[in-house]
Amino acid sequence: MKGDGDVIYGTGIDLTEIARIESMLQAGLKLPEKVLTPAELTVFQSYGQKRRAEFLAGRFSAKESYSKAFGTGIGAQVGFQDIEILDNALGRPAITKHPFDGPAWVSISHTDQLVMTQVILERGNE
């Protein structure tokens, strides 16, 4: 953070098993259409099978983390389509659309089996 008086509104962390997402994809469930915005879905469709599962698991987990930081969980107040995470010019994931009125920061990391994400929502002093 910048250190200019901003404070953390909320933080959320999530861990998702990539194999669970792969199973859902193989079962033909409409998880990508449910979780990903149209712009994210375009990126998802450009990848091969293994990378698709990693990408979807990362976005699913990051949106879960966001909803925890927001304080509501995924549901009526914040849905998967309300949050969009796209890579910036440097390849870093950035939250480009979300309902919170303030900066939102995301980190996505994965191994072969797991995706771990963290979201921090920041607000100015009131």
From TrEMBL:
Database matches in InterPro entries: 4-PPantetheinyl_Trfase_dom, 4-PPantetheinyl_Trfase_dom_sf, ACPS, Ppantetheine-prot_Trfase_dom
Domain 4'-phosphopantetheinyl transferase: 11-115
The EC number(s) this enzyme carries: 2.7.8.7
Database matches in Pfam families: ACPS (PF01648)
Localisation per UniProt entry: Cytoplasm
GO biological-process terms attached to the record: fatty acid biosynthetic process
Protein name as catalogued: Holo-[acyl-carrier-protein] synthase
Major localisation: cytoplasm
GO cellular component terms, semicolon-separated: cytoplasm
Claim: Lipid biosynthesis is one of the keywords in the record: yes
Family: Belongs to the P-Pant transferase superfamily. AcpS family.
Cited function: Transfers the 4'-phosphopantetheine moiety from coenzyme A to a Ser of acyl-carrier-protein.
GO molecular function per UniProt: holo-[acyl-carrier-protein] synthase activity; magnesium ion binding
